[in-house]
Amino acid sequence: MNIKVELPGLSLKNPIIPASGCFGFGREFAELFDIEKLGSIMIKATTLNSRKGNPTPRVAETNGGMLNAIGLQNPGVDYIISTELPWLSQFNLPIIANVAGSSVEEYVEVAKHLSTVDNVKAIELNISCPNVKEGGIAFGTDCKVAAHLTEAVKRVSCVPVYVKLSPNVTDIVQIAKAVEEAGADGLTMINTLIGMKIDLATGKKVLANGTGGLSGPAIKPISIRMIHDVYKQVSIPIIGMGGIQNTNDVLEYLYAGAQAVGIGTANFVDPYICPNIIEELPYVLEQHGFKDIKDAIGYTHRVKLD
Amino acid sequence: MNIKVELPGLSLKNPIIPASGCFGFGREFAELFDIEKLGSIMIKATTLNSRKGNPTPRVAETNGGMLNAIGLQNPGVDYIISTELPWLSQFNLPIIANVAGSSVEEYVEVAKHLSTVDNVKAIELNISCPNVKEGGIAFGTDCKVAAHLTEAVKRVSCVPVYVKLSPNVTDIVQIAKAVEEAGADGLTMINTLIGMKIDLATGKKVLANGTGGLSGPAIKPISIRMIHDVYKQVSIPIIGMGGIQNTNDVLEYLYAGAQAVGIGTANFVDPYICPNIIEELPYVLEQHGFKDIKDAIGYTHRVKLD
Amino acid sequence: MKLIEDMKIVKNCEIAKNIYEMTLTGDNVKLMNQPGQFVNIKITEMSQLILRRPISICEIDQEKKQIKLIYRIKGQGTEILAKKLPGEVINIFGPLGNGYPEYSIKNHETALLVGGGIGVAPLYELAKRLSRRKIKVKSVLGFATMTDVFYEKEFSFYGEVHVATIDGSYNFNGNVLDLIKSKNLQFDVIYGCGPQAMLKAINDEYINLKKGYLSLEERMACGIGACYACVCDKANKSTETVRICKEGPVFKLGEVEI
Amino acid sequence: MKLIEDMKIVKNCEIAKNIYEMTLTGDNVKLMNQPGQFVNIKITEMSQLILRRPISICEIDQEKKQIKLIYRIKGQGTEILAKKLPGEVINIFGPLGNGYPEYSIKNHETALLVGGGIGVAPLYELAKRLSRRKIKVKSVLGFATMTDVFYEKEFSFYGEVHVATIDGSYNFNGNVLDLIKSKNLQFDVIYGCGPQAMLKAINDEYINLKKGYLSLEERMACGIGACYACVCDKANKSTETVRICKEGPVFKLGEVEI
Ligand SMILES: Cc1cc2nc3c(=O)[nH]c(=O)nc-3n(C[C@H](O)[C@H](O)[C@H](O)COP(=O)(O)OP(=O)(O)OC[C@H]3O[C@@H](n4cnc5c(N)ncnc54)[C@H](O)[C@@H]3O)c2cc1C
Ligand SMILES: Cc1cc2nc3c(=O)[nH]c(=O)nc-3n(C[C@H](O)[C@H](O)[C@H](O)COP(=O)(O)OP(=O)(O)OC[C@H]3O[C@@H](n4cnc5c(N)ncnc54)[C@H](O)[C@@H]3O)c2cc1C
Ligand SMILES: Cc1cc2nc3c(=O)[nH]c(=O)nc-3n(C[C@H](O)[C@H](O)[C@H](O)COP(=O)(O)O)c2cc1C
Ligand SMILES: Cc1cc2nc3c(=O)[nH]c(=O)nc-3n(C[C@H](O)[C@H](O)[C@H](O)COP(=O)(O)O)c2cc1C
Ligand code: FES
Ligand code: FES
After folding, report:
1. ipTM here
2. Same domain, D54 and D124
3. Residue pLDDT, tens place only, A243-268
4. Among B21, C239, D224, D231, who pairs with A28 as Cys (CB 3.0-4.6 Å)?
5. Domain limits at C171?
């Protein structure tokens, strides 16, 4: 069973990629399993300067999901280039570098530098982080702003640029089309939905930040719908994510039109989830009558209705 | 413990209201318990003519929620006025009539007629149904369109008009402000989020309609966030809903700023959920140190941070 | 009295491949008095399975305050159900819907009960009741293959039983309609439950010839007629629908569009 | 070897009001060899409780391949945990984090172990190990009220024990710091675990006077340092943070901002 996937800039041995912010820079999981097994890693969002992120509590549990408001804590692009990426280069692993910022200039600067690093094979433009006051999601909710940013980053990036879409929009297809037109090489979707939880004992919001991003199985039907709709309207590839917990969920994403998938929250539930899915995927594809993973991608769009 | 709530047009003995589409016109639940115990009933969406709705399957289960694509099946405004509302008038129950349509004229026509019926104490403008091809959600995703519709309905309605907001928007606060300005007497929020589920055995979408509306506990954090944000920016009252499963959930909605709540999906899980919550609510409020339900409404906005 | 009860599991065992028989006991059994009704089961508190699962009542024993359900493992819900142990309780909402009208057949007439797969289940209580009235009961039970066969002996207490398997691995080779025709079974009223294709075939075949009743299935949410999830069209009236959970699940032959 | 295992419950019983002691056995016990580390528990498959729950390791018994956890019923997760029966398994991820460095104290020195409420738990293995090295161990256990008190006797095997209750219902009336001062307890190294206010008080009091180690808590997701949920500021460096799950949960006195 072939489970290799070819995407702009990315030759993936398999389509399983830990999602940005849920896998750090791989160091912690490398203590648990051989991370070279992964298709790729979407590393933690990188900004120009180091960022401290939001006050704690930063996470809260919800029914079928969780809220997070980490707030883009990261050591800044220089440190990541001097320390984290070289460490990752010991593995035969194409890296997808998640880029964040609070101005077009910051995105451009960070993407430019990251894209020159050897093992960085693609940039993931995070225009959808709901957890920072300025920037982040603001870039992902307006077609023109998103397109402008994409263009600017495309101009400087030495590697393909994937734009990570926010689900907190009226019409995600329009945003997808806008960034495609602006030159995006691919899409990753979706980022988290904005949510809130209140502590009944105190009446206060559980997260210090007030709101946070909702991830986990609760959001899967929303993500599947969005990917399905975007797949029909754009021709650049999609890396799908949102609530994947097992190999069947991966199959659902492939059917909807994702060429590869990101695994986020599930890493916290079962730290071995990625290698487990990688192992199971060929069998599950076979069970469903596929000979090549390619035949499963977009299957729902081709299957005959009776 | 006082749990009475006064809202425009509605003197509620308690804030517990079965949500539209999840309780029919009350007949089925009346066989199970004394529906006069309820604060009110939001009856099934009414259109000008009878509607057959979508093909089946119309429901699918998701993690922490469900998808529905009923498609506004209803017997039309005349039948509802001649048969369902008179039947409901045997109970001492203010009715909230959910109005849908595919044109401004249809909404206006339906609202006008329904609002003259004695036991209809408020109109709920459903500008957020994701399950019909034309109309429905289209009215709820654009400020101008929503405001225009609200104005038009306000002009003809003999009772206060509540606008039911769609969560499938970039900025729900803007829509809320727009309909407030257009004369809405209150808001109900939220309607369902658009989702999809794929059957892995066949590759087909589970719902015949393709997409459906996601309801249930999965969406509660999204709804709480939206109500919290809207409460801060508008001064008309909010009836909150989305994933309420128990009395604690009701409290969370009150804290976020809802003055009353709608219970939807939970009626399917436990048909006795509404009377159970009504019974428990005074004790839960008391446990949390409240003397009157009013003190719990919007509590999160007043509680001191330390 | 509430229509909902935590009923206690008395027995729960596999009676054919992936087919389980569960015996439940509780006070609400006294409300259950019609063959072909169903219950809506809250299988677990896990929120990944939020909806109830509709399962037909297979047998009612008022004296023992027991009912039997027969279910096939299909997905996560029935899988969890199969692992439940005697002594545990499960939350049962029911009886719901309208079953087979018992007095739809006269005392001297012959009933033909046609069950396909798991659809055999709701016919069992009917067989019992009809035979109690000394009505002649013929049962035709259709299965995919030999390992699926169940309740052949049980039905035989109440009359002649014919078993068909699609792959011919047990008894008659073919579907239930093939069997009825090939054996030229005579009857006055037909009662069916099973896959939609089977029900459609029965409906088309006998709509103008016989009296009959068919039990339908559709994905449900409320199970009581409130949500309109489970509708189907009335026959010849493309604008009117019935709710399978409320007006059904059992409908007259020719009453609805299958 | 995977750091995750379905461990078997040997015992699970209430030892004080809403406080439970759970004994677990499994192969991964051999990886657990440091007082003050924690495990991250998948309490149930119910998706309404998706995150693991961090609980400190209270005692390690390599011979029996057992560990003990002590937990207080707080919300839904610990409530479910309390209902688990011996023989059942639960999925345990760990050991995680850095515990109390055992050799942070010299053989002739005196250790003061200060536990507040459920924070008493991780100090127990430490008490055992220190006393095995013949180090003099003094324990101060603080609780809200008499019914909360646990492990007084257990700690007394390893040295003198002082119990304080905030409401004075049992032994000393006041908090742990009041007790230490009032009894003028002498020591060289202080080890603390408990509510943040208690840890802050200890930190402020002894930061310039004593060596010491404090175990912190924060809401967690991954438990291994990958998600940055559980950070806290390094002392005097408002731009640098540590992860409680990874660099901690035990930090040196004065190392972090409490
Ligand atoms: C009135 C009625 C009576 C029934 N009686 C029986 C019976 O006696 N024995 C039996 O084995 N089965 C019966 N079924 C079918 C049974 O309800 C489904 O097989 C069961 O719900 C599957 O649940 P699951 O979690 O195992 O499967 P999943 O596929 O995981 O279920 C997912 C969702 O789809 C729904 N669903 C899946 N298949 C069906 C179906 N065929 N019909 C309706 N909803 C479905 C489930 O209820 C659930 O909401 C009956 C269905 C209806 C409507
Ligand atoms: C390193 C560490 C060690 C701990 N050791 C122990 C111990 O030995 N015994 C013990 O009883 N408790 C301990 N706790 C606290 C324990 O994790 C929480 O009480 C428990 O997670 C509550 O879960 P719940 O479902 O019952 O409560 P809920 O309030 O329903 O939990 C909801 C969410 O909040 C989180 N949460 C709630 N309270 C806390 C808290 N105080 N700290 C961190 N997360 C929290 C839960 O993990 C969960 O994700 C420890 C916490 C940490 C971080
Ligand atoms: C704790 C946490 C941190 C995250 N940090 C980032 C981030 O830095 N950049 C980003 O693009 N997405 C971030 N995300 C979003 C995830 O990458 C992913 O899009 C989302 O969680 C949905 O997938 P899931 O349901 O599998 O978690 C984060 C999610 C979580 C839960
Ligand atoms: C089966 C079903 C039918 C619904 N029909 C309507 C409707 O006719 N009109 C409407 O405004 N909302 C309708 N809704 C939305 C609910 O009223 C409610 O806003 C939503 O389900 C969120 O609440 P819940 O999570 O408690 O179900 C429907 C929801 C469901 C599940
Ligand atoms: S399941 Fe709700 S109407 Fe039938
Ligand atoms: S819990 Fe993830 S970094 Fe500590």
Report:
1. 0.97
2. no
3. 999 999 999 999 999 999 999 999 99
4. D224
5. 102-252
